[in-house]
Amino acid sequence: MKRKTMMKAFAYFLLAGSMALVSSSCSSESEGGGGAPMIESVAAAADANLEPVTVGYAANMYVIHGSGFTSTQKIYFNDTDTYFNPVLVTDTDIFVTIDRDTPYADVSNKLRVVTKNGEAEFDFVVAPPAPGVHSFNPINAADGQEITIYGSYFLNPVVMVGDAQAQVVSSTLTEIRAILPAGSQNKKVTVTTISGSAEYGTAVGTAIYDDVFYSPWNIESWNNHEYVTNFAQAAQGTTFIKKSIEGWGNIQGNWNWNDQLSNYTGIHFYLRSDDAGKLVWIVNGNGWGNADHAINTTKDWKEVRLTWAQLGNPAALQNISFQEFTGSTHNYYIDNIGFTVD
Q: Which of 116, 185, 322, 336 has the smallest CB count inside 10 Å?
């Protein structure tokens, strides 16, 4: 579905460009574009009806409608010099994409078009890109406790946990502190701003490991692993597990017992390595040396989700371990181990 949407948008862009070329030729002959510019309206290029708007979103294309645009030299959104393609400029219309890095707080809220014959100004608000949620901590917070949500573009955010609204204690563009409402367990956290919504994939109360292990789970010290605290490199929160695993070696979780599995649909974990590697997942002691359980790893985090059916519908979760499967030593990293709810 996403591919179809992108192809449709691209086709529209090509059509717009063709129309602009024809219109530019006609308008330059008939009107000459000699007058001072005037902005009448702005519309989203993707809107077939080109309904006028006064709020635009960064990284989206818009049509500036008016007159006197033929000799356009500069376009500014909130005093930010914005790239435009001269091919998509006619005397009456300009197709331009708002730069993703355009400022949106404490700004002029003005659109300006500068031509050889003068400039025009228009009241126009640039909203930030849609929010992005990197993670939140602690995953296993109880109802009424505070969590910290990490991400980007948190402008005047509303936080929902499932269908209930959380109380926002404080927020910056990259961090939100919020109080979990009643009924939050096994529900997902969503952040909404003027620009859209972002849901985090790990639900409240489902962690085996986020920045710490939750009882009774752990990795015994004899594994010679370490915990690395580095927010920029973590898949979840701030801290992840690292171990240099020799060829065909392993990192073993300790053995425990959890038979309260009915609220969950399976388990998940995140893996990566410094270079191309391969790990076999072993759950409840099943899978040692099983190539069907092998996961290729790269320098980028990869989430692995396993349903109870894939795990043989176990009566309980007892152990999660990993075996090196390239035959060579690699640095492997593990993060965000927990239960899934969908």
A: 116
Mean pLDDT of the chain: 91
Q: Provide the Cα torsion 163, 167, 169, 174; round to 10°.
A: 10
Dist CA 190 CA 159 (whole Å): 6
pTM: 0.76
Residue-by-residue DSSP string for 45-103: TT-TT--B-SEEETT-EEEEEEE--TTEEEEEETTEE----GGGB-SSEEEEEPPTT--
Give residue 240's identity as a one-letter amino acid code: F
Q: Which H or E run includes 190?
A: strand 189-193
At 32 the three-state DSSP class reads coil
Q: Cα dihedral sign for 302, 308, 310, 316? A: positive
- For the ranges 26-40, 108-122, 193-207, 315-329, the lowest mean pLDDT is seen at 26-40
CA distances from 243 to 46, 135, 227, 323 (A): 49, 23, 9, 11
Cα angle value 236/162/145 (rounded, 5°): 65
- For the chain, how many residues are written? 342
Phi, psi of 208 (to 5 degrees): -95, -40
Asked whether 155 and 192 are in contact (CB, 8 A), the reply is: no
Q: How many CB atoms lie within 10 A of CB 178?
A: 25
Instruction: Count CB neighbours of 239 within 10 A.
Output: 18
Query: Comparing C-alpha atoms, which of 194, 180, 337 is closest to residue 269?
Result: 337
Of 330, 325, 321, 333, the C-alpha closest to 245 is 330
Q: What is the DSSP letter of 128?
A: P
H or E element in which residue 6 lies: helix 2-30
CB 115 within 8 A of CB 73: yes
The pLDDT tens digits for 236-284 are 999 999 999 999 999 999 999 999 999 999 999 999 999 999 999 999 9
